[in-house]
């Protein structure tokens, strides 16, 4: 979206809008939006997804785009690019003062789930799969499946047929899509590696949630 003439995008590493990958205060974000000449100002606020409903309430004309990717590919990618997977869960359980956004809006039921697997001895791949579950279950916890201001789309469908996938998103935003934005979108990362070994119980949680998400997508492209 940052290649469109109609949009101005702030990615999570952009220090103008984010502080340590978290959106700055709503009042400051409102000023960034007010000064922009773009039709749509977009924020890649992944670390704020647990607060999407409150953001939509604060910004009355705002819309949300929730994109989910299959947990196997997310786990494989995360294991390559990050190191602290089990540590993420440890902080949530034993150092809540350091957890910050990671602990926001996490239910007691899900905290108990983390405790259970941590106590039993969880590996890095299963830790990252559990994190995928914790982050994406927030979509339903916030009842975003009933919110007309939010669109849910599957990453794999978006990259498999980007012209159709992005067109539906731009229609949702009520702006024209520039065809060139799809020129560098490819599906080569989909199922690129062997599925990781995940604790069966966690894998079942992820599979069930993945199917729930698919059933609520707004995609018009065939599922892959």
Automatic annotation (TrEMBL):
<dbReference type="GO" id="GO:0016740">
    <property type="term" value="F:transferase activity"/>
</dbReference>
<dbReference type="Pfam" id="PF13469">
    <property type="entry name" value="Sulfotransfer_3"/>
</dbReference>
<dbReference type="InterPro" id="IPR027417">
    <property type="entry name" value="P-loop_NTPase"/>
</dbReference>
<protein>
    <submittedName>
        <fullName>Sulfotransferase family protein</fullName>
    </submittedName>
</protein>
<keyword id="KW-0808">Transferase</keyword>
């Amino acid at each position: 979206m940052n290649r469109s003439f109609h949009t101005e995008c702030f990615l999570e590493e952009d220090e103008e809008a984010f502080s340590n990958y978290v959106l700055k205060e709503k009042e400051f974000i409102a000023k960034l939006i007010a000064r922009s000449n773009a039709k749509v100002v977009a924020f890649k606020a992944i670390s704020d997804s647990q607060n999407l409903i409150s953001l939509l309430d604060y910004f009355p004309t705002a819309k949300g785009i929730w994109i989910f990717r299959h947990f196997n590919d997310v786990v494989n990618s995360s294991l390559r690019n990050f190191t602290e997977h089990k540590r993420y869960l440890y902080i949530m359980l034993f150092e809540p003062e350091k957890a910050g956004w990671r602990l926001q809006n996490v239910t007691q039921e899900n905290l108990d789930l983390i405790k259970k697997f941590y106590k039993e001895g969880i590996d890095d791949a299963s830790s990252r799969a559990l994190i995928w579950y914790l982050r994406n279950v927030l979509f339903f916890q916030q009842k975003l499946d009933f919110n007309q201001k939010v669109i849910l789309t599957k990453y794999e469908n978006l990259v498999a047929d980007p012209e159709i996938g992005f067109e539906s998103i731009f229609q949702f935003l009520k702006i024209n899509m520039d065809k060139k934005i799809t020129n560098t979108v490819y599906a080569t990362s989909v199922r690129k590696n062997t599925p990781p070994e995940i604790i069966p119980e966690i894998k079942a949680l992820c599979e069930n949630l993945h199917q729930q998400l698919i059933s609520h997508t707004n995609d018009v492209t065939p599922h892959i």
